[in-house]
TrEMBL record:
Membrane topology: Multi-pass membrane protein
Similarity-based family: Belongs to the binding-protein-dependent transport system permease family.
Keywords annotated in UniProt: Cell membrane, Membrane, Sugar transport, Transmembrane, Transmembrane helix, Transport
Gene3D superfamilies xrefs: MetI-like
Protein name: Multiple sugar transport system permease protein
Species assigned in the record: Leucobacter exalbidus
Length: 284
């Protein structure tokens, strides 16, 4: 064995230790706030005031969650249902409209197709906050302020980001498959449903997850277009709890934990798709 190999064998374990140390530190920094949120939500206000903030909650209590769902603070159960309905409708509509638009841009030939696509894609460079006031005025003129459809309507149609990703994915599907289907008499609808969509499940799952996370955490638009508890979503309800009980961190952390829980379950259930989505959105 040469001296270079001996040196490499000595360095490699040290390198691995360094890599794992960085990874563990990063994991603690990312997971630390979530763990602290869950621990605090399981304590009583007296425990939080008299013990260390890092002390384990004992005895465990669900008092904070019971108060959230009792309706004495905010109607949290209604906020969860409103958020679930809002996110579900947005996911379905955005995927349907984005798939149709992306198929047209990828596989249909019509005058001005590419110019129209790039003009539409350029709207990605417009900050979302710039469109808030025009959207608010339009929704108010339609009489939809402080309604469920006022909450949902601006997000029903396909997003430029989703259309761009789907178009690139559809263009990667071999043209020979489409041509063979056309020779067998298939039209555009049949090609889309029988060939394009089954081969595009990874990117569709990716966009579904991205849309769910984005709109579950949406705060600005629901805060502006709704007032009062009737159509309050989970993010605005959590902010309302924090405003009313700024000193009572156990209830605030219980609301935060409930807001995070569906996203954690989503990650556990679809972790393979989420990992593959990172690769798809990074390299395509």
């Amino acid at each position: 064995m040469t001296s270079a190999n001996i040196t490499a064998n000595r360095v490699r374990p040290l390198t691995l230790v360094g890599i794992y140390a960085v990874l563990v530190t990063g994991a603690l920094l990312v997971l630390g706030p979530f763990i602290l949120s869950v621990m605090t939500s399981l304590k009583t206000p007296q425990q939080l005031a008299t013990e260390s903030k890092l002390a384990l909650p004992w005895p465990l209590t669900l008092e904070n969650f019971e108060r959230l769902f009792s309706g004495e603070i905010v109607d949290f159960s209604r906020s969860i249902l409103v958020t679930a309905g809002y996110v579900g409708i947005v996911i379905v509509c955005q995927l349907v409209f984005s798939i149709l638009a992306a198929y047209a841009f990828a596989r249909l030939n019509f005058p001005g197709r590419d110019a129209l696509f790039w003009v539409y894609l350029s709207t990605l460079m417009v900050p979302a906050v710039v469109t808030i006031i025009p959207l608010y005025l339009m929704v108010s003129e339609l009489g939809l302020r402080n309604t469920f459809w006022g909450l949902v309507l601006p997000y029903l149609f396909g997003s430029p980001y989703a259309i761009f990703l789907l178009r690139e994915y559809f263009r990667g599907i071999p043209q020979e498959l489409v041509d063979a289907a056309r020779i067998d008499g298939a039209g555009n609808w049949l090609i889309l449903i029988r060939i394009i969509l089954p081969l595009s499940r990874p990117i569709i799952a990716t966009l579904g997850i991205i849309t769910a996370v984005t709109h579950w955490n949406n705060f600005m638009w629901p805060l502006i277009i709704t007032s009062g508890p009737e159509w309050s979503v989970i993010t605005t309800s959590t902010a309302s709890v924090q405003t009313q009980f700024n000193g009572n961190w156990t209830i605030v952390m219980a609301a935060t934990t409930l807001a995070l829980l569906p996203l954690i379950l989503l990650f556990v259930a679809f972790n393979k798709q989420i990992v593959s989505s990172i690769a798809i959105t990074s390299f395509r």
